[in-house]
Amino acid sequence: MLPHLKVRRSLALASAVMALSLPALVLAAPSAASIQRADIKLPIQNYIGAFGGPAGVKALINTFVGYVAADPHINYYFAHTNIKALKYNLTQQVCEIVGGPCTYTGPTMTAAHQNLQVTTAAFNYLAQDMIKAMDKRGIAKPAQNYLLEQLAAMEPQVVTANGPLG
Ligand code: HEM
């Protein structure tokens, strides 16, 4: 790989990690509505318009799953996954998280990932693919940061393969 490409890739990863770990990047303040679910406990805000409604979320998930499938860092995790079911559940989940009129009915994040040995690095590559997909779909940065914060809140349920230092 050419040196400048290497730098660009690690910069992109660094920005994904920062987006996940720096609350300051999340521009919108929590609002009144707060719902309690097994895995997502942050206040829900309404960004469904910024995502293009439920149809926009569905298109985003299609793009995202395409990027994950093409990502050699993490695609092997999904070798035995029912992709149609994954897309459906992710669409419902993300639509609900961003305040849309959808209901997620899939497994808890703990149940879905408990046997997968997901690492922090894998989590961050997946987040990077989501950022790439949101950029591709033209989703505004405040809405992107909101979704990334919600996903980051699920990391403890998803990542099971690291010690305290990752
Ligand atoms: C916050 C981040 C994540 C969210 C919101 C999420 C969401 C989901 C959901 C909703 C399902 C259930 C799909 C179904 O049963 O149809 C699922 C399953 C799965 N997830 Fe994640 N996931 C996340 C991170 C990851 C990461 C980082 C990996 C690995 C790189 C991963 C790998 C998988 C795999 C392989 C399955 C399928 C398990 C199976 O076939 O039973 N996930 N995820």
Please specify the SSE layout and strand pairing:
Layout: H1 3-21, H2 53-69, H3 83-97, H4 109-113, H5 120-136, H6 141-152, H7 155-158
Helix pairs in contact: 1-5, 2-3, 2-5, 5-6
The structure holds protoporphyrin IX containing FE.
Describe the structure.
This protein has a domain at 47-158: Globins (Globin-like), CATH 1.10.490.10. It has seven helices and no strands. With 166 residues, the chain is mainly alpha-helical. Bound molecules: protoporphyrin IX containing FE.
Number of strands: 0
Q: Structural class from helices and strands?
A: mainly alpha
Shape: globular
Small-molecule binders = protoporphyrin IX containing FE
Radius of gyration: 15 Å
Q: Any idea of the CATH topology of the domain at 47-158?
A: Globin-like
Number of helices: 7
List the secondary-structure elements in sequence, H or E. HHHHHHH
On the 0 to 100 scale, the average pLDDT is: 82
Low-confidence stretches: 1-36
Strand content: under 5%
* CATH superfamily caption of the domain at 47-158: Globins
Tell me which CATH architecture of the domain at 47-158 applies here: Orthogonal Bundle
Query: Mind telling me the CATH class of the domain at 47-158?
Result: Mainly Alpha
The proportion of residues forming helix, as a percent range, comes to 40-55%
- Main sheet overview: none
> What is the CA–CA distance across the termini?
26 Å
